[in-house]
Design a protein that fits this description.
This protein is an alpha/beta fold. The protein has a single domain (3-284), classed as UDP-N-acetylmuramoyl-L-alanine:D-glutamate ligase (3-Layer(aba) Sandwich). It is 39% helix and 21% strand. The chain has nine helices and twelve strands. It has helices at residues 18-27, 56-68, 86-102, 127-135, 146-153, 160-172, 220-235, 238-258, 270-274, and strands spanning 3-11, 31-40, 51-53, 77-80, 107-110, 115-116, 120-121, 141-142, 177-183, 192-198, 203-209, 283-284.
Length: 286
């Protein structure tokens, strides 16, 4: 069991941000400290919502309160997702440095939420630049989708070679592991969707069947980052963590489709998150 701090958005209804990350982390056996960057009625994919973005001062006070209680002394991992403002990112890095002073082995999983294919950039100005220029060197694990991989590097990703080249750029900037989610490329089977896991020394590619969802559920990237972090902290095994993550996500998507839901069927798939019934093998990329 590890202690993981998750700094992400929160919705009252639905499964994105911390609502898509905390339960899987807990179900996989970890204690979670959840800090919410926003509190909305529902995720923004619905087109309208109510609620508030937490101020930088609010988040800073939450961290300070946790520090006063000694609750930051045993953190093994930090997970971050949607940031409402680049100034919040700077507060995050301030506290991340403190946490790494306490635990130099701390694993930081950064989900650089910027945008997606079809939607474009959906974060405030300054946030993409924060990820590119400030967060990257601190990331043990970076989990961009294909659109974000292009945004972070300026490399248009349409082939496996493009994806490898983009990952190499990010490794040079400091990211140790890169898990590219929802990879769709011209030189692959269109009936499948892939994940690419890259380090400076090796890379693995894993494909799962593409499920045609009436409306693509939001929050899958948040859930992916959480499960991968949970399994990597637990096992310290790249290949196992990748394969478990892909299997758990596929099972959740399959259940979501079966129930004809717009929101991820995380609760209904909780046993599959822990022990997936269908496994997919990754192959080493040479």
């Amino acid at each position: 069991m590890a202690n993981i701090l998750s700094l992400q958005s929160h919705v009252a209804y639905g499964y994105v941000g911390n609502r898509a990350a905390v339960f899987p982390l807990q179900r996989l056996g970890h204690e979670v400290i959840a800090i919410n960057t926003v509190q909305f009625s529902n995720h923004t994919g619905y087109g309208s919502w109510t609620g508030d973005i937490m101020t930088v001062e609010h988040i800073d006070k939450i961290f300070a309160g946790l520090e006063q209680q000694g609750m930051l002394n045993h953190i093994n991992g930090v997970l971050t997702g949607y940031l409402g403002d680049s100034a919040l990112g700077e507060i995050l890095l301030k506290w991340l440095q403190k946490l790494r002073t306490i635990n130099p082995q701390l694993i930081y999983c950064c989900d650089p939420v910027i945008g997606d294919i079809g939607r474009g950039i959906f974060v405030k100005a300054g946030v993409p630049e924060f990820f590119r220029e400030q967060a990257l060197p601190h990331a043990t694990i970076l989990t961009p989708n294909q659109f974000e991989l292009t945004n972070l590097t300026g490399i248009e990703v349409t082939t496996l070679a493009d994806a490898r080249e983009a990952c190499a750029v990010l490794h040079d900037k400091g990211a140790k592991q890169i898990l590219v989610t929802s990879l769709t490329r011209n030189d692959a089977d269109p009936t499948q969707i892939e994940m690419l896991l890259s380090t400076k020394d090796e890379a693995y590619l894993l494909a799962t069947p593409r499920l045609e969802m009436p409306i693509a559920p939001n929050g899958s990237g948040d859930m992916t980052a959480a499960i991968y972090l949970a399994k990597y902290i637990q096992s310290n095994n790249l290949l196992l963590s990748l394969e478990h993550t892909a299997a758990a996500l596929f099972a959740t998507f399959k259940q979501t489709l079966k129930l004809a839901r717009r929101e991820l069927a995380i609760i209904q798939s909780q046993n599959e998150i822990v022990q997936p019934s269908q496994w997919f093998k990754a192959k080493k990329v040479v």
